[in-house]
Design a protein that fits this description.
About 75% of the residues lie in helices and about 0% in strands. The protein is mainly alpha-helical.
Length: about 60
């Protein structure tokens, strides 16, 4: 009987809003990194991001 009580306390229901929030947060982080590297003053960071965008087929200019 005590095992049943413990299992009932551990069970939880999934929250649908958290999946959408995770997607939005991942997109925002990716966009921030992409645009921050594009406007970086360091040429090494900019060139690395530029080459990566071209290798993935992302038009940047």
């Amino acid at each position: 009987m005590s095992n049943q009580a413990i299992q009932e306390q551990i069970q939880s229901t999934p929250i649908l809003a958290s999946k959408g929030l995770q997607l939005i947060a991942a997109f925002a982080l990716g966009a921030t990194i992409l645009f921050a590297a594009a406007f970086a003053q360091s040429s090494a960071v900019h060139n690395a991001a530029h080459d990566m965008r071209h290798s993935q087929g992302f038009p940047c200019h």
